[in-house]
Amino acid sequence: xxxSPSMPLSVIALHRGLGAHGERNPxxxxxxxxxxxxxxxxxxxxxxTATLATRRTVKKDAQAAWLLKAITCIDLTTLxxxxxxxxxxxxxxxxxxxxxxxILEALGMASAGITTGAxxxxxxxxxxxxxxxxxxxxxxxxxxxxxxxxxxxxELKLKEIEASVADGAAEIDIVVTREHVLTGNWRALYDExxxxxxxxxxxxxxxxxxxxxxxxxxxxxxxxxxxxxxGADFIKTSTGKEGVNATLDVSLVMVRMIREYLARTGFAIGxxxxxxxxxxxxxxxxxxxxKEELGREWLEPxxxxxxxxxxLADIERQLExxxxxxxxxxxxxxLA
Length: 336
Description:
CATH class: Alpha Beta
Family: Belongs to the DeoC/FbaB aldolase family. DeoC type 2 subfamily.
Helix content: 40-55%
Number of strands: 8
Catalytic activity: 2-deoxy-D-ribose 5-phosphate = D-glyceraldehyde 3-phosphate + acetaldehyde
Mean pLDDT: 92
Strand order of the largest sheet: 7-6-5-4-3-2-1-8
CATH architecture: Alpha-Beta Barrel
Pathway: Carbohydrate degradation; 2-deoxy-D-ribose 1-phosphate degradation; D-glyceraldehyde 3-phosphate and acetaldehyde from 2-deoxy-alpha-D-ribose 1-phosphate: step 2/2
Radius of gyration: 19 Å
Keywords: Lyase, Schiff base
Largest sheet: 8 strands, parallel
CATH superfamily: Aldolase class I
Strand content: 5-15%
Distance between the termini: 33 Å
Structural class: alpha/beta
Protein name: Deoxyribose-phosphate aldolase
């Protein structure tokens, strides 16, 4: 895995997150037979993920290329109680221009037009973010359905989705009701996500499983499959607000379910780890996971996103070290 990533023309349909006939994942009828017998061997999962950073290395120019690719997959995020419109607009400016000009010029990438994959905010700031990103091609993602706990009434969740789409959100990151998973009420989970997908209309739906809350890897596997059956375009690990957020173990289980769903239906589903992916070293492990388990197509923002904020500063810092040989202070690479 020493080559820098490039996009084969033969996989354009998958790159766009489409099935064999060019459609988004429409979902399939509920069938518990697809997941009832799923069991996950946690020890085997741990052994597999433990090898990711040791069997593959990415160095020097190749590492810089992989980190630049990672930037294009970041959902640059601010989800704090003290967010303001000014902070969101500054975040959007950073999304448009995520790496300093002198670093890009030194890397020979000054004209590459690198941006982040999206900007992710609460509904309150969707319209401001859409305005700040006008003409950039960067989509706005809105967290929704009572984020992060997901315990508001179902009808209010649907109205929140509709309001964010009306304000211009192109992607909706929904949270599932954890109780449905913990009690094994898979039909209720399916129906809930199906309703969310319908409310999204043309906006893509990312289903957040809150893997730190749903206890077992077997639950993670089943919830992943149910959400994809219900029409999710992406499955996402976490809100970033749980005690445990994205890990390589839960990510491996989720991408294996994506592989299974692709084999059954022909539809490529995206994956988004979120929460705790804060260093350049850690994001390389996730990129290796995607390439080894799903293939080159899942290194593109149409099928891979990273929910993060501080990650971008560390990537920019590592890129500066690559071109200058020196590490700079974090404050020289502000997010906003």
